[in-house]
Amino acid sequence: MKVRLKVWRQKNSGTAGAFQTYETPDLNPNMSFLEMLDVINEQLAGRGEEPIAFDHDCREGICGTCSLVIDGKPHGPHHGIATCQTYMRSFKEGDEIVVEPFRARAFPLIKDLVVSRKAFDTIMQAGGFITVRAGSPPDANAILVPKEDSDLAMDAAQCIGCGACVAACRNASAMLFVAAKVSHLGLLPQGQPERHARVKNMVEAMDAAGFGNCSVTGACEAVCPKSISIDFIARMNRDYAVALLKGDAKESASGAG
Amino acid sequence: MNLLQRVWRSSLGKKYVMALTGAALFLFVVGHLVGNLQVFLGPEAINRYGHFLKTTPEILWPARIGLLTCVGLHIFAAMALVAQNRVARPVAYAKVGAHGATIASRTMIWSGLIILSFIIYHLLHYTLTLPSVNGYGFDFSTLREEEGRHDIFAMIVMGFQKWPVSVFYLIAVGLLCTHLGHGVGSMFQSLGFKNHVWGPRIGGLARTVSVVLFLGYASIPVAVLSGFGGGHLSEVRARIAKRVSEHPVVPGRIEVSHGTNTTGKGK
Ligand code: HEM
Ligand code: FES
Question: pLDDT value at position A79?
């Protein structure tokens, strides 16, 4: 099969970008979308042109590195599937496919289709962890976790941090990502000691990064390659309200420990 | 950092403000409808209700101040949120997908602003009873029953008999319906009152309640334009005509056109 690609090309954040159209050679419909880009890049390299820069790593839907807005939808036409798991057979012979980078102020463009998602790392550093003594593994079932809590925590933990939620949201809001990370740990016993500090710190880091706000349109969950539910945002809203009402921890006079 | 500052500065906090003020306004909108529907019980019921509110300042004024505060905060928070949302995506997509976002959810600011313009008009029209905005040129508060109570019933019927007024009203309550169809569900989300049992039902309930509100509000101008209340108005007109013919020297209340005695105080 052959398709025509309209790809966003931009040398760097300092220069203006524009769409460029490429006709693909005959493709195997069972190629992945990224393999199709590889084929184009080989052609470009052969002609001495600059290949299209795009992000990818595992190519099996688990690392969250691939991105791309394909025909207006982050991660392409399917639901619950990342770009790297999207295959050319999902398109039709002769289709014109528009490929754009994720667009958000908090995700500055680096080159072509590659944007910096460092803001997510900053948010994670603000609270997306638990502070434990990293010794030998604890005994299994030493801490009991109700099944429904662990299931829900695992649903949240599915988030691969790709940023599709930000890309799809008309406000470029990162709420779904942050909510998933806050809920993942907030639902488990190991996450309780830092639960309120975590939600405050992560939300503040999110706000500082320049993401927009949530209008509850549901676009984020619709494009999420891991189908993370928008209900986690409600949970984060609740946790944050409780955290604000509890206030910051009092400075300890004795400095226990 | 202090609590209020934290609420105001954070994205989530501003949504709490939106949701709490939106919830208060929603409750008012429900109560206001129930009050207004008394028009269908006839002049006695609605005029007594109006008289009760007017003569009970300990309910009227807290409600007015509370509502104005809520509207103010709701708009202030909306502006702050929308401004942040606009700058959060400096470069637009060439191809934009809605990804299931409803039109209602994407037009909250526009439905809100039109509702705001309606609220202002509505207050000038029926609360401040400005002669220049009702299409008749006299002060609606001069419409009185024989015992001197405000004739709210006549005011409503006369007001809506002007079709442009009714059309604007219908547009505004239509947009209120879309605003709340999305907003009431969103309010539960913003405050975190949602779980897997009733969470999935909230959206549908919000839309249903909004449609019911729309039908309730719309029924009044539609009834008036279909002739409802015409009989009462004829009685009012006859009464005024009679009084004018009995006291020709006293400037009447209703036929005062511009500038002269529009206060209409006294019986
Ligand atoms: C009777 C009048 C009104 C009622 C009952 C009402 C109710 C609501 C409710 C319940 C919400 C949902 C809050 C949330 O998402 O948590 C909302 C959102 C909103 N309202 Fe209103 N509202 C009214 C008037 C207005 C006005 C006058 C404006 C004008 C600026 C406005 C602008 C907005 C906007 C922009 C949102 C969406 C906020 C967002 O998506 O982040 N509303 N409203
Ligand atoms: S490349 Fe790892 S998720 Fe797509």
Answer: 94
Structure tokens at B145: 């029953």
Q: What's A70's domain CATH number?
A: 3.10.20.30
Q: How many residues does the structure list for chain B? A: 267
Q: What total number of domains does chain A contain?
A: 2
Prediction ipTM score: 0.92
Residue B254 — very low, low, confident or very high, per pLDDT cuts 50/70/90? Answer: low
Please tell me which of the candidates A98, A216, A239 has its beta carbon nearest to residue B189.
A216
Q: How many CB atoms lie within 10 A of CB B123?
A: 15
Secondary structure class of B156 (helix, strand, coil): helix
Residue B156 structural domain: 2-89+102-264
CB contacts, 8 Å: A72 with chain B: 93, 95-97
Tens digits of per-residue pLDDT, A15-54? 999 999 999 999 999 999 999 999 999 999 999 999 999 9
- The Å distance, Cα A118 to ligand 2 centre, comes to 17
Q: Using CB atoms, which residue from A69, A105, A239 is nearest to B88?
A: A105
> Measured between alpha carbons, how far is B10 from A24 in angstroms, rounded to an integer?
47
Interval B176-189: pLDDT, tens: 999 999 999 999 99
C-alpha A114 to ligand 1 mean position (Å): 36
Q: Is A71 helix (H, G, I), strand (E, B) or coil?
A: coil
CATH at residue A139: 1.10.1060.10
A59: tokens are 């190519």
Ligand 1 atom closest to B75 (CA): 30
- pLDDT at residue B266, as a whole number: 40
Domain boundary pick from A76, A92, A111: A111
Residue A42, domain extent: 4-111
